[in-house]
Amino acid sequence: MVAIGSDHAAASLRQIVKQYLEDQEIPYIDCGTDESPSDYPEIAKTVCGKIQSGEADTGILLCGTGIGMSMAANKMKGIRAAVCTETYSAKYTRLHNDANVLCMGARVVGEGLAREILDTFLFTEFEGGRHQRRIDMIAELEK
Ligand code: RB5
């Protein structure tokens, strides 16, 4: 299950992402928002809360740059959020970091690139092995 959220700056990109998920038959929870203006930390908290509770295993957070969302998301326990502006980062943040939240900026990526980043992020598996030890070290930092 994917939980998705955006602030006002990325409301239209959120609709594009929802259409992508429907095309791929990937179930999702839309955490909003259609309010304008809105505060991205609140949306990040709601989406990441779905991961923490086990309702979702992946989050997609969208704002103007993707950066504010990632900063807020990474304050939450168990969340590994990555801002991706191209597919190389989307691939390796899954392979090496086991990222569970993808952040994108609606003022940074266009629709075509956003779809390619989604494809890469959602369909790349964590490599495990030596990378698991480093993920465990990140979890230690949360304590
Ligand atoms: C909203 O104007 C903008 O600050 C927000 O969407 C985001 O880019 C913050 O990181």
Concise overview:
With 143 residues, the chain is of the alpha/beta class. Helix content is 46%, strand content 15%.
List keywords for this structure.
single chain; 143 residues; alpha/beta; Ribose 5-phosphate Isomerase B, Chain: A; five-stranded parallel β-sheet; 6 helices; globular; binds D-ribose
Itemize the secondary structure elements and their pairings.
Layout: E1 2-6, H1 11-23, E2 28-30, H2 40-52, E3 58-63, H3 67-73, E4 81-83, H4 87-95, E5 101-105, H5 111-122, H6 130-141
Parallel strand pairs: 1-2, 1-3, 3-5, 4-5
Helix pairs in contact: 1-5, 2-3, 4-5
Residues 7, 9, 40, 63-65, 67-68 line the site of D-ribose (RB5).
Question: How does this model look, in words?
Answer:
The structure is a single chain. This protein has one domain (2-141): Sugar-phosphate isomerase, RpiB/LacA/LacB (Ribose 5-phosphate Isomerase B, Chain: A), CATH 3.40.1400. The chain has 6 helices and 5 strands; from the N terminus they run βαβαβαβαβαα. The protein has helices spanning 11-23, 40-52, 67-73, 87-95, 111-122, 130-141, and strands at residues 2-6, 28-30, 58-63, 81-83, 101-105. The protein has a 5-stranded parallel beta sheet with strand order 2-1-3-5-4, with helices on both faces. It is globular. The structure holds D-ribose.
